[in-house]
Design goal:
Distance between the termini of chain B: 58 Å
Strand order of the largest sheet of chain B: 1-2-3
Helix content of chain B: 40-55%
CATH class of chain A: Alpha Beta
Helix content of chain A: 10-25%
Order of helices and strands of chain A: EHEEEEHE
Strand order of the largest sheet of chain A: 1-4-3-2
Radius of gyration of chain A: 19 Å
CATH class of the largest domain in chain B: Mainly Alpha
Number of strands of chain A: 6
CATH superfamily of the largest domain in chain B: Cytochrome-c3 Hydrogenase, chain B
Largest interface: A-B, 33 and 35 residues
Order of helices and strands of chain B: HEEEHHHHHEEHHHHHHHEEEHHH
Strand content of chain A: 15-25%
Number of helices of chain B: 16
CATH superfamily of chain A: NADH:ubiquinone oxidoreductase Nqo5 subunit
Radius of gyration of chain B: 23 Å
Shape of chain B: globular
CATH architecture of chain A: 2-Layer Sandwich
Number of domains of chain A: 1
Strand content of chain B: 5-15%
Number of helices of chain A: 2
Distance between the termini of chain A: 39 Å
Number of strands of chain B: 8
Structural class of chain A: alpha/beta
Structural class of chain B: mainly alpha
Oligomer: heterodimer
Amino acid sequence: MALTRDSIVAALTELRDNPDLAFRVLIDLTAVDYAHGKRTPRFDLVYALLSRRHVARIRLTVAIDEGDEWAPTVVGVFPCADWLEREVFDLMGIRFEGHPNLKRIQLPEDYDGHPLRKEFPLRGGHRQVRRPEDPEPVFGHRFRVR
Amino acid sequence: MSPAMSEEIGTVAAERETMVLHMGPQHPSTHGVLHILLTLDGETVVDAEPEVGFLHSGMEKLFESKLYYQGTTITDRMDYLSPMTNNLAYCLSVEALLGVEVPKRAQYVRVLLSELSRINSHLVWLGTHALDMGAMSLLFYCFRDREMILEAFDSVAGQRMNPSYMTPGGLWTDTNDDEFLPKVRSFLDVLPSKLADYHRLLTKNPIWRSRLKGVGILSAEQCERWAVTGPALRAAGVEYDVRKKEPYSSYEDFDFDVPVRDGCDCYDRYLNRMDEMAESVRICRQVVSNLPSGRWITEDRRVALPPRDILHRDMHALIHHFWIIYNGYRPPPGQAYVPIESPKGEIGFFIVSDGSNKPLRVRVRPPSLIHMQALPEAVRGGLVADVVACIGSLDPVLGEVDR
């Protein structure tokens, strides 16, 4: 189900509080990067909810444009979104307005780049391990498996 | 004591400062590389802030550079204590994308392997949890029992810990029933008496009870807010097990109960997992006695490799085999998320396909990460020793937390 960015918080609140819907559990919050020119809003923010009462699931998608990568936080609706949003920020670079603690979760605080983005090289590019005396990175250069 | 002196002591106590203590990341009781910043007032936990990411190895990005059938090898390494359930979750999502049907035999074997994985994971949980609490010998007993499961995995998949035995469409190869089933049967005969021994050692043990009863309370409402699933949720009185409510892979054919208790504490989580092991034995017995014969992988030739015995004489089979192994298959564009009940909680793989032979995005919904988020709720107000008990009872696996 597709949503617009402004309606996320209201929609999630309604889904959670309406007793006929009762989607009270935020199962997952993640993002998809459609770069490689496949689609124009580059990112999709995906919210997966579960209704235990009705044994039903729903998936909501918000399209986010490149260059405009932010979304309102849903921590007020589902506290468990805290770390999930941090992970999306960390790995995809989408900021969440109003998040109480938006810092990186998986990677070190001072890491540069957002690895799950498509342009981020699989082996990390210039971040690869190298000793001072190596002109080239230790892994992935001469021993690359094609 | 003079009134002036007691007043002085009272003032000092009121001005006591809190202390910040690092627990981990290198720590024998954090079940991996988990770092917790504890804010303590004496020995009472005022706040706990877990820090994760020490085991992060970019698994979700790795999926994007692998063909669909190669992805199962990555799934093993996530929740490495119950690799078969990870395989199953991934394969179910890919099969949903592909629209292929898995034959009954493969579904039954998948159930068997998932339940053996569940027992595997719970045995490690029990051993390490007891070890953290000080009951060291249980670790050795549980790992000894686990040997039998690992040998069964070895005989069926060739590997003990990272089997990658399931593949989208079914199983990678047929189980050798003459070798595999006797191992499973002998294990199933042995385990119930071992579980009874562990109950005798722990369940009514006053030290065990005093360390776990009333510790780490996560009420049903807290579980809902923090999306806690699995045995911890069922210890809070919520009867939700994905195997029963949203059955997958023929679980509806089997007769089993789901343990639910309402103490919300570590002790009830312990009892839940012990009962789950007994129920898994029950399911495994039913599978072993009703295992149908038939194909181990789907009939769909776009996904299933040709039979090996004709490869050396049939050119088309050779090309077909080569094509699938080298190029993979292309699911139609779409998204799929099929949740399953892993020993840790609900796990599922949200896979987005763009029609090419590699996934566009694979997202693992990691129960262990989400439970770690709920950890501060469970330990606030308790003692430092209770933090160890809570971590053990929430049973995180850092491979899944960090991926």
